[in-house]
Design goal:
Strand 1, helix 1 and strand 2 form a beta-alpha-beta unit. Helices cover 32% and strands 24% of the residues. It has 529 residues and is an alpha/beta fold. The structure holds xanthosine-5'-monophosphate. Xanthosine-5'-monophosphate binds next to loops.
Length: 529
């Protein structure tokens, strides 16, 4: 498939991935690169368009991220957003300076002229305005020669300007942020109309293509995959199964810290009874893990044991299988960008689940067919490949599993308690959410992005059927978050929480109290440990 490419040049803005996701929602493929990328490389990639992101600097200061004016003379359409808009005007001879008034938040933007970017954009008819998201302290005080102002706000004379003849467009606000009501349409106008992309980036053609690529790379080689049962590794397994069938071996380590029935669910999909013709090895390592974890209470020590034990178990299995040609990894695009390989932001996240494997498995090369996909695209691929929805829409689950949802020492008994409590909690929240949606036609505003039960190490006195109890307290947590970096407690309806409380206490032996965790992140974290 001939891929039409848009390049997002990252100037350190916090929304760089969002820009790329929005472009892909227009069915146009795009990749994020650092603004340091050489012009020759850009030319060689032959993009249909270039988008410059926002960033925290002032473009008129020395040492600020910049690009030479060659970028704007390639004959390739360029769209600058926020810092990118200022930089474009600055480099091409306009003036950018500190704004007398800093704009932040939802702002009314008035459209002064027609523009290809504002085609079909819904405007308030009297004012010719729409709401946008602003976040800037500098502004364009004088457009570059050849640029026309196309929009303004009360405090910003140049909210958008353009040199239409050369296909150069600058927008001071952030169309990629949902608060900019018509933002997606503006990005669509840029990539589809100005750049002329046809919109052929679709997940069905991705699957077809990825299968062909895997076949070509792997040939008749053997591939090994550490399957965790999470979204990425499950989709990867399904994709590889379609591509190379029984040349694939999946090793699934059940460490006894999974959610209730999860091990069996994964086995039902990928094991002998499932629909994929692969080699599936389930290692029941529960007891081994519980023994290693006995008496250990310190969170980091627990994480370390769980991680190391995983490598050991996997190593033993890999030895049984013998040399393989390829190791498959479920790397996805945010991992690539966040590890500094793609964009400019330098957040480095370790790969919690498969980190360390390449050190001891005997293999020649790595296959990572999902490495260019965002999470929502991975999910679409999963559905395309026929994976059940419960696997594809699974909420994030940490590699160390329930090990970090049991405060203090982990035992088999405590795992049983937290599994049962968590299953009840998720069932009730899911039911209430489904009822809400059926009644109202939209998703509940309280619908959490992650919700689970954890076990405290608090035991307290209670009374049940005239008898004194001295049992554990379960804590239930539900958070709303976009990026899992910050989060707030979801306002689960009180009656749902009451049902959860009474069901957990009645149905789960060993629990006599239920707490609801209200803590935001920061200062809390989402998980307990
Ligand atoms: P925290 O607790 O750091 O969690 O606020 C943020 C998100 O990351 C997940 N998480 C993990 N995922 N291995 C993982 O694969 C881990 O060790 C780990 N710790 C936290 C957590 O579930 C949440 O979605």
């Amino acid at each position: 498939m001939e891929k039409e490419l848009i390049i997002v040049l990252d100037f350190g803005g916090q929304y760089n991935q969002l820009v790329a996701r929005r472009v892909r929602e227009c069915n146009v493929y795009c990749e994020i690169y650092s603004y340091r990328m050489d012009i020759e490389k850009i030319k060689a990639m032959n993009p249909k368009g270039i988008i410059l992101t926002g960033g925290p600097n002032s473009c008129y200061e020395e040492d600020s991220p910049t690009y030479t004016d060659e970028l704007f003379k390639l004959g390739i359409p360029v769209l600058g957003l926020c810092y990118g808009a200022q930089l474009m005007n600055h480099v091409l001879g306009g003036k950018v300076e500190k704004a007398p008034v800093r704009e932040y938040g939802k702002t009314e933007v008035f459209v002064d002229q027609t523009s290809p970017l504002f085609e079909n954009v819904a405007l308030d008819s009297a004012e010719k305005s729409t709401i946008c998201w602003m976040s800037h302290f500098d502004y364009i005080s004088k457009p570059a020669p050849g640029f026309q102002i196309t929009a303004h706000t009360a405090d910003c004379p140049v909210a958008a300007d353009e040199d239409r003849e050369h296909n150069l467009y600058a927008i001071q606000f952030h169309p990629e942020v949902l608060h900019t009501i018509e933002g997606s349409k503006m990005l669509y106008n840029f990539v589809r109309n100005v750049c002329g992309c046809s919109g052929s980036w679709k997940m069905d053609s991705f699957v077809e293509n990825a299968i062909a690529e895997v076949r070509e790379k792997v040939g008749d080689g053997k591939v090994l995959l550490a399957l965790s049962g999470g979204v990425d590794s499950s989709v990867l397994a399904a994709l590889l199964a379609k591509a190379i069938g029984s040349q694939l071996t999946c090793v699934f380590v059940d460490h006894g810290l999974l959610r209730k029935n999860e091990g069996d669910e994964v086995e039902a999909v990928f094991g002998k009874e499932g629909s994929f013709d692969i080699n599936f090895v389930r290692v029941n390592a529960q007891e081994r893990y519980y023994q290693k974890l006995a008496g250990v209470t310190e969170p980091e020590a627990k994480r370390k044991i769980i991680g190391e034990e995983f490598i050991r178990v996997f190593e033993e299995e890999a030895k049984k299988i013998g040399a393989v040609d390829f190791l498959a990894q479920g790397t996805i695009y945010p991992d690539v960008v966040e590890s500094g390989l793609g964009g400019e932001s330098a957040v480095i996240k370790s790969h919690h689940n498969v980190g360390g494997l390449p050190d001891f498995v005997d293999f020649k090369d790595i296959v990572e067919p999902l490495r260019n996909l965002f999470k929502d695209e991975v999910r679409k691929v999963g559905l395309e490949l026929g994976l059940p929805e419960f696997l594809v829409y699974r909420q994030p689950f940490p590699g160390p599993g329930l090990g970090i949802r049991i405060i203090g020492e982990v035992t088999g008994e405590k795992v049983r308690i937290v599994q049962d409590a968590d299953a009840i909690y998720r069932e009730e929240v899911d039911k209430a959410a489904a009822d809400y949606k059926e009644e109202n036609g939209v998703e509940a505003t309280w619908m959490p992005n992650q919700y689970f039960a954890a076990l405290t190490n608090v035991r307290s006195v209670g009374v049940m059927g005239d008898e004194r109890t001295y049992d554990y307290a379960v804590v239930v947590r539900a958070v709303r978050t976009v990026d899992f970096m910050t989060a707030e407690a979801a306002e689960i309806p009180f009656e749902v929480l009451q049902t959860v409380m009474s069901r957990i206490i009645n149905e789960v032996k060993g629990v006599n109290r239920v707490f609801y965790d209200l803590t935001t992140k920061p200062p809390g974290t989402i998980e307990m440990e």
